[in-house]
């Protein structure tokens, strides 16, 4: 039997979007302002898990799991909230613990303030164009998958089988990306992963695209712990960075990982973080684009889509991290910072050590 729908006249009198949740993180009541802002009936929100309303990232979940050692409300910047896959609404969220153990959430919308971090929202026209492109890609991807399966049956040597496996893996990853564009779904739960496994996948892709024209240098820290993340999304983000370096005329591309302690990412200080650097000796970022390089549809190449860096930055945010760069002709460094939990697992290094590939 469904719980009775609760209404709070005191909350309904407020123009600020507000909701309450019980000690278990389930919505008990929201005011009319919150329901209107989120674009959903006021009756549909009660009994929904609060974390299910977060459309991107996991800052809300992290705040709910954090120890109550902070006095006063917690402020979470630019949280994307949506109901059952609806259009995300962005807000600065204030989260307070009430005397009975329940939660009070205030949403202060930031969409209405122009000029505030435009990289967070893709224009509707672009979203529609991407869905159309995804639809057109489905049939060619199905054909590639079938061809890879046929090649796999005929491959006689280990090198050929490895290349066929790489093709099949990339087709599967692209198919999943197409499915996400066609039918957006909540982010997948993060899993422990070896970040060097992600980088090795990118190295194989770079070797196939650039061949002998680019020297790829591995500079890995083998003592890094496992990272909680989405391997497919991280592979796509790092590949975008490496491919940009190749397309900028780089002769040398270095993939470097290190552990850093006491790192500030946004407003949070993390005791341990992964610093990943993609270093290249290509042409660098054009000075005219220096302030816009992470915006969608901005590219320094005439044939560029302008989506690679915007997507890489989005993946960094999904992992509570950040992406930044510094550049001059002949030396460009993109730095990806991702927080690590010190107890997330054993070392991820194994055989990953400093080295090069042709």
- Calculate the mean pLDDT score and round it: 78
Task: Report how far the terminal alpha carbons are from each other.
Answer: 65 Å
How many domains? The number is: 3
The helix content, as a percent range, equals 25-40%
Low-confidence stretches: 1-5, 112-125, 343-353
Give a written overview of the molecule.
Pfam families: HATPase_c (PF02518), HisKA (PF00512), PAS (PF00989). It comes from Luteimonas viscosa. This is Sensory histidine kinase/phosphatase NtrB. The protein is α+β, with helices and mostly antiparallel strands and 358 residues long. The chain folds into 3 domains: 9-114, Beta-Lactamase (2-Layer Sandwich); 117-185; 188-357, 2-Layer Sandwich (Heat Shock Protein 90), CATH 3.30.565.10. Helix content is 33%, strand content 25%. The chain has 8 helices and 13 strands. It has helices at 9-12, 32-38, 59-65, 124-154, 158-182, 195-210, 231-247, 308-318, and strands at residues 18-21, 27-30, 74-81, 89-97, 103-109, 191-193, 215-219, 227-229, 252-265, 268-280, 322-328, 331-339, 355-357. The strands form 3 sheets. A 6-stranded mixed beta sheet has the order 11-12-10-9-7-13. Strands 2-1-5-4-3 form a 5-stranded antiparallel beta sheet, with helices on one face. A two-stranded antiparallel sheet has the order 6-8. A hairpin with a 7-residue loop joins strand 3 (74-81) and strand 4 (89-97). Helix 6 (195-210) packs parallel to helix 7 (231-247).
């Amino acid at each position: 039997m469904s719980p009775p729908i609760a209404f709070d006249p005191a909350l309904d009198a407020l123009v600020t979007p507000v909701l309450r949740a019980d000690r278990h993180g389930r919505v008990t009541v929201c005011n009319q302002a919150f329901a209107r802002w989120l674009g959903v009936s006021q009756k549909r929100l009660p009994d929904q898990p609060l974390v299910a309303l977060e459309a991107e990232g996991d800052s809300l979940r992290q705040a709910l799991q954090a120890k109550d050692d902070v006095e006063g409300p917690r402020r979470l910047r630019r949280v994307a909230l949506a109901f059952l896959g609806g259009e995300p609404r962005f807000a600065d969220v204030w989260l307070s613990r009430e005397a009975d153990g329940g939660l009070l959430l205030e949403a202060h919308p930031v969409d209405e303030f122009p000029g505030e971090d435009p990289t967070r929202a893709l224009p509707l026209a672009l979203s529609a164009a991407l869905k159309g492109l995804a639809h057109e890609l489905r049939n060619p991807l199905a054909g590639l998958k079938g061809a890879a399966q046929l090649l796999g049956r005929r491959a006689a040597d280990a090198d050929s089988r490895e290349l066929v496996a790489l093709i099949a893996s990339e087709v599967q990853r692209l198919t999943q990306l197409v499915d996400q564009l066609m039918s957006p779904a909540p982010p997948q739960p993060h899993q422990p992963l070896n970040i060097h496994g992600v980088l090795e996948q990118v190295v194989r892709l770079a070797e196939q695209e650039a061949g002998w024209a680019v020297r790829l240098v591995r500079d890995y820290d083998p003592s890094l712990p496992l990272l909680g993340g989405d391997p497919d999304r991280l592979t796509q983000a790092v590949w975008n960075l490496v491919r940009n370096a190749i397309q900028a005329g780089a002769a040398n591309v270095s993939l470097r990982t290190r552990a850093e302690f006491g790192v500030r990412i946004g407003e949070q200080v993390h005791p341990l973080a992964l610093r990943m650097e993609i270093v290249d000796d290509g042409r660098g970022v054009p000075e005219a684009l220096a302030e816009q390089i992470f915006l969608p549809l901005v590219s320094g190449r005439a044939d560029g889509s302008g989506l690679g860096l915007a997507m890489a930055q989005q993946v960094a945010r999904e992992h509570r991290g950040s992406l930044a760069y510094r550049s001059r002709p002949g030396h460009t460094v993109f730095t990806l910072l991702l927080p690590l939990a010190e107890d997330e697992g054993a070392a991820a290094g194994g055989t990953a050590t400093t080295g090069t590939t042709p």
